[in-house]
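Thread: "does anyone have the structure for this chain?"

Original post by V.I.:
We have the sequence but no experimental structure in hand. Need at least a predicted one for the grant figures.
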Amino acid sequence: MKVYTDLTQLPDFQGSVITIGSFDGVHSGHQKILQQLNTLAKEVKGESIVITFHPHPRFVVKGKNDKLKLLTTIKEKTDLLEKNGVQNLVIVPFSEAFSNQSPEDYIEDFLIKYFKPKYIVIGYDHRFGKDRKGDISLLKKFETKNNFKVVEIAKQTIEDIAISSSKIRIALENKDIQTVNRLLGYQFVLNGRVVQGQKIGRTIGYPTANVDVEDTDKQIPPFGIYAVWVFSNGKKHGGMLYIGDRPTIENQTNTVIEVNIFDFKENIYDEYLWIEFVDFVRNDKKFDGLDALKSALMRDKLRTLYLLYPPS
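Reply from O.Q.:
Generated one for you, C-alpha cells below.
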C-alpha cells in the first residue's frame, strides 16, 4: 500500500475508486466498505484509495477538550488498512482552513482535482465543507459533468458502524476483550516504543518492556493484566501486559504500560512493538510486598498461557 501525507506529492490518479472517512478502529463494519471499494477498483481496473484525516476532524472543530478517544492511532490504522487490501492511503492534514472550504470547492478543488474518481463510495449521511453543509445529493450533481458515479453506503451499514464503534469502546472500558475482538474482526492493537523503565520486574524474575504509546488520543484499556501477543522484528511471542500505577511499589503514581514477553531475552529498546490483546486476566491490585507480587505474577502467567495456548 502506498501512503501519502502531502497533497502536492500525489500521483496522477486515473480511474480511482475512493472512499472518505475516519475509519477509526477499521472494524468489521468498515471492512465491508473496504471490500466493496476493492471490488469496484478491480472491476474498472483502477486503484482503491482511502482518504482519511489527521488529526481527527473533531479535535480541530471542537478543540482538544473533546473527550473522544481513538481505537486506533494513525500508524495502527495505516497497518490495518493495508491488511485489508487498500492500495492507496491519503492522510490529509486536517485544519481549520480545510474545514472552511465551501462544499463546492471541496468537491472540485479537492476530490476531483486530486483524485479524478471513477467512483466515490460514501455514506448516505456524509457531510463536508464549511458548516458541514455539503451532502451526498450535492455530490451527485457533479456526477455527469465530471464522469464519476456516487455509490451510496446503505443507511443500515452506516448505523451498524456507529453502533459497533460505541459497543467496542464500552466493551473496552469494561475489559471485555472478547467482545472487543469480535466486533473489531481482529485482536485489539496497541503500538508503542520500548523505553527505559526502573527494571524492577527483572529483580523478581519477570522482566518487562516498558511501552510508550506516543499518541495521547489513543484509547488505552483500563488498569489490569492482559494476555497478549507481541510482535517484535516480525516474530510473534506470547506475553502478559500490565497497565497501572504499580500500587505495590512505594512512591509510584504514574501510569505505566509494560509487557513481560515469555522466553525472550533480546534488547529491544527504542523498537516499536505491535501488541494484540487476547483476553483480560485480572484487575490491578496492591500486594503486601514483592514476594506476594511475585507469587501473583506466577499465577498470572499460568492463566495467560492457558488463554494463549488453550488445550484442544
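V.I.: this helps a lot. DSSP finds eleven helices and twelve strands in the chain.
O.Q.: and Residues 155-173 form the longest helix (19 residues).
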